[in-house]
Amino acid sequence: MTTRHDIDASFTALPYRRLAEAALTRAQDFHAEHADFRFERIRTQDIRVRDGRLQGAADHEVLGFAVRVVLDGAWGFASGVVLTPEAAVGVAETAVRTAQVAAAMTATPVELAPEPVHDDVTWVGDYDVDPFDVPLAAKVDLLAGWSARLLSAPGVEHSTGSVSQVVENTFYTDLAGTTTTQQRVRLHPEVEAHGTDRRSGIFDSMRTVAPPVGRGWEYLTGGYDWDGALGELPDLLREKLAAPSVEPGRYDLVVHPSNLWLTIHESVGHATELDRALGYEANYAGTSFATVDRLGTLQYGSPVMNVVADRTTPHGLATVGYDDEGVAAQRWDLVRDGVLVGYQLDRAMAHAMPELNGGRSNGCAYADSPGHIPIQRMANVSLLADQQGPDTDELLSRVERGIYVVGDRSWSIDMQRYNFQFTGQRFYRIEGGRLAGQLRDVAYQATTTEFWGSMEAVGGPATWELGGAFNCGKAQPGQVAAVSHGCPTSLFRGVNILNTTAEAGH
Amino acid sequence: MTVPTPQELVEHALATTTCDDCVAIVRDSTSANLRWANNTLTTNGVMHDVTVSVVAFQGRGEGTATGSVSGSAASLEQVEALVASADAAARAGGPAEDAAVLVTGETAADWDEPSGDTSIEVYRDFAPALGEAFGRASAEGRILYGFVDHDVTTTYLGSSTGLRLRHVQPTGHYGCTAKPTDLSTSAWVGGATRDFTDVDPAAMEAELVQRLGWAARRVDLDPGRYDTVLPPTAVADLMIYAYWSASARAAHDGQSVFSRRGGGTRIGDRLTDAPLQVFSDPGYERLQAAPFASTASSSEVESVFDNGLPLSRTHWVEGGVLSALVQNRYSAGLTGQPVTPYVDNLVVAVDGATGSPQDLVAGVERGLLVTCLWYIREVDPQTLLLTGLTRDGVYLVEGGEVTATVNNFRFNESPVDLMRRFSAASVTEPSFSREWGDYFPRTATPALRVPDFHMSTVSQAT
Fold first, then answer.
1. Same domain (yes/no): B198, B326
2. Cβ-Cβ contacts under 8 Å, B438 against chain A
3. Would strands B187-193 and B385-398 be described as parallel, antiparallel, or unpaired?
4. Contacts of B31 in chain A (CB under 8 A)
């Protein structure tokens, strides 16, 4: 049970409404077709421990604002950190000047899809305890204690831990009349044990698979089974260090949500970003094989594949009330019965392709900070469970010779989201429908549609978990985003398994 | 209302702290960028940011506790709030493991000078040329996508032990991808610059046209080991990761490719028989970087106690032998090695190398020329095995000439192993890593020819 919070009073005391009025009034002087003002405060605290001791703790606060205009069909964007109306006017003028420079090189005029006016609305995420209300010493003690507990276990030579905490406040207002004020909280805790196998000299590590979440400090004090997670790590590490190296070849895979979330992120989440499909990221993050001409016909995966984009997922990292263009959060289908049926949009693209969402954005424009321009960014993208689906034991029982994958580690995918290769925290051999000990040196590699096409079954709701990341990168200048992905444990047939030691030529 | 200068922000922090010692770092930056796709400008921006970092130290010597707080701050009141938070954190904190005597010093000669800056005007020559390139591309069936960015960040570092250091860091880069209108292939050119006076849009366009022309013939190849020329940008992609993995602490703790089995680091080991040099040098021509350490929080390789420590040319690999790992004063104590802090540039060179990347291609009987690498991630820390992909053009070389474009590949390779296996190198030149250039823009690298580069699987990306 979480409590409703108000927007932090130390944020509402900031002069953003006066700055907004000054900036937008100035933009109107130039007859801008659109102008918006966004003011953000992002408070971050990172704590790192090593071998039971504090290694570093750092607080960081980003505080600033941006003005974005459409003038003569071109974007203009500028940002600043001096919190006075005079400075806000200056930033608005810089945005206008930038639009004027850009207009000469803008061949396709920018137009924005309409959005209902949201008149001075407020949205606060779902959490209990603001992490910045917890004394630093208490947080360091908790984390250092976890690290010390691991270090004292047999076979653990070193232990590391970290927790990133973010509280984000955004005020947005535009000339059309929408005004939103929002507050979000998120945490990412990780603890890792390191060890060496004395006989072989092999070293390795085993990390907790607890996901980052849109929750408060309560996540570390009772919102997850930390005791169980810490208790099992040393044994899991010892077993991994002594495990046999995998024989490369084709295997059936049962993949746990703590690993599969990242495969969804890379091969479905990014591939259904419309800006990528249209080429806007061609020079950086890349494009997408899932091009618009294949909407409604592309067989993305097997018929049991149903994927939704959702900016309202409870405790999701990309969950919000309104995006950075004043568009209300929504939920919609990306893949239905295995077929591509949707994309993630911002207002400009929603205008350009009204067939995708009835001419309205689905609310996927956001920036990572006041100094960056909003771009089309990812919603929480999740694979749906089968309401009558099997549990994990039943999925395993359907596999004669295979591998069970838990936890994410290494990830890589090509510039059009075809070829990917992933590793994990731990891999178990499946023999005759049962787990038969860990394997080492495993990577699974596939092409997106081939992989999702080989998905024979998705698990039931009891196997569904929400994973995610804080560090999704995109755009130039580079921006990071936090996003969640839920999925059930799922069964894939005949996936290519590499031996990473053999790949290294050893 | 007058906006305080960065120097005033530093002095105000040092004057208002109630802890025993304090370091204040102000980074004042402006940046301007243009981004384009589909032969039209898409986004752009001019940003100004002032970040103040305050590190408070409570106690002296062993047992010192620290508090690190950073934030956007443009007023004295904002600085006071940061100082109050840092002081409180230091008072509440336990002894720092990296506690050491703070660096002392004096006021640098340029301390009083104002911050450097940039504006959209930095593109006064580039922007019109780009507009013309859009027109030609549309007329000739090409699509251009790209980005230019210029940033000038001035760092002011002051301490209660007398340091007053200033550094102006200009950073810029350009990159452009081109595709034919049927999107059947892709080419890329890009590089680093300090001021855009040396960026020639016409030359950029000409090279893109040449590379798209190489795609007139397409050959599909299977995965395997190929005689491969990695251009300077791809060498930077791989060697930056090796540099980032060169933490002395991680090696000492038995967690990296630079760990000695059984304990300790591999400093002193021969990594290659080739006369390979890998070093960082804050004074290196065209790659000038900050000549002093500055960090807002301690980590595995950096220490807040080392703020202001002078940086100089540091050899990581000398004549093929691993000669140093990245470390602060604390880890230097653990490893019994000299203090060799992180420096913000990287140079790779092979003694006696002559010729250009094209000259390396001319020596290949049948092999591959890669444009650049992408989505590089660590697969196994023991060997520093990295995976990633080729991107925006892989070319077939036959009889020393490019004769076709081939499909993209996923590779699995270790940069440490490549140091041992490369068969030829070109002269070192300034380069820009496609993968890491946003975070690490200052590199000089040769092209390397690797006789058996491991292309593990095929990527359908074009």
1. no
2. 476-478
3. unpaired
4. 477
Which whole number is the average pLDDT over B23-48?
Answer: 93
Write the CB contacts of B155 (distance below 8 Å, at least 6 apart in sequence). B25, B26, B27, B165, B166, B167, B169, B290, B294
Let me know whether B117 and B57 are in one domain.
Answer: yes
- Per the structure, the complete domain to which residue B102 belongs is given by 6-212
- ∠ Cα A378 A379 A385 (to 5°): 125
**Of the candidates A265, A252, A256, A250, which has an alpha carbon nearest to the alpha carbon of residue A448?**
A265
Contact between A140 and B461 using a beta-carbon 8 Å cutoff: no
Residues composing chain B: 462
Number of C-beta neighbours around residue A436 at 10 A: 12
On whether both B391 and B287 belong to a single domain, the answer is yes
Which of A201, A373, A412 is closest, CB to CB, to B375?
A: A412
* Chains A, B: CB pairs < 8 Å: 276
Instruction: Name the minimum distance, in Å, from the CA of B154 to any CA of chain A.
Output: 16
The answer to whether position B1 is within a domain reads no
Question: How far apart (Å, rounded) are the C-alpha atoms in residues A80 and A63?
Answer: 9
Exposure string for B122-148, b = 16+ CB within 10 A, e = fewer: bbeebbeebbebbeebbeeebbbbbbb
Query: In terms of domains, do B372 and B431 share one?
Result: yes
CA torsion sign, A238 to A239 to A244 to A250? negative
Interface with B, mutate which of A476, A480, A498 (most B CBs under 10 A): A476
Contact: A55, B300; criterion CB under 8 Å: yes
- The C-alpha of A389 sits at a distance from chain B's nearest C-alpha, in angstroms, of 33
Q: Residue A133: what pLDDT? A: 96
pLDDT in tens, B427-441: 999 999 999 999 999
Residue B364 forms part of a structural domain = yes
The whole-number pLDDT of residue B11 equals 98
- Domain end: B153, B188, B212, which one? B212
Best mutation target among B134, B245, B379 (most A Cβ atoms within 10 Å) is B379
Average pLDDT over residues B55-62: 92
Q: Name the residue of chain B whose CA is nearest to A290's CA.
A: B461
With CA atoms as reference, the chain B residue closest to A200 would be B261
Give me the pLDDT at residue A195, please.
Answer: 97
Q: What is the mean pLDDT of residues A21-43?
A: 98
Domains contained in chain B, number:
2
Give residue B9's pLDDT.
Answer: 98
Position B61 pLDDT exceeds 90: no
What value does the mean pLDDT take over residues A182-188? 98
Residue A1 above 50 pLDDT? no
Closest approach of B392 to chain A, Cα-based (Å): 9
Residues B262 and B308 in one domain: yes
What CATH number corresponds to the domain at position B146?
3.30.2290.10
Tokens 């940039």 correspond to B118
**Is B300 found in the same domain as B411?**
yes
pLDDT score of A362 more than 90 = yes
Q: What is the mean pLDDT of residues A214-222?
A: 97
Instruction: Specify if B288 maps to a domain.
Output: yes
- Does the distance separating the beta carbons of A137 and B93 come in below 8 Å? yes
Q: Of B212, B230, B249, which marks where a domain is finished? A: B212
Lowest mean pLDDT across A47-56, A226-235, B421-430 = A47-56
Q: Is the pTM of this model over 0.90?
A: yes
Nearest Cα of chain B lies from the Cα of A33 at a distance, in angstroms, of 16
Q: Are residues B196 and B238 in the same domain?
A: no
Looking at residue A483, its amino acid is V
For residues B111 and B29, membership in a common domain is answered with: yes
pLDDT of A283-321, one tens digit each?
999 999 999 999 999 999 999 999 999 999 999 999 999
Q: Which residues of A touch B461 (CB under 8 A)?
A: 286, 289, 414-416, 418-419
Residues of chain A above pLDDT 70, percent: 99
- Domain assignment present for residue B65? The answer is yes
Which chain B residues have a beta carbon less than 8 Å from that of A106?
40-41
How close B177 comes to chain A (CA, Å)? 5
- Taken as a whole, chain A contains a residue count of 506
Torsion of CA B136, B140, B146, B148, to 10 degrees: -20
Segment A159-171 shows an average pLDDT of: 98
- Residue A348 backbone phi and psi in degrees, to 5: -70, -40
Q: How far is A161 from chain B (nearest CA, A)?
A: 12
Q: What is the pLDDT of residues B450-460, one digit of tens each?
A: 999 999 999 99
- Verify whether the Cβ–Cβ distance B48 to A80 is below 8 Å: yes
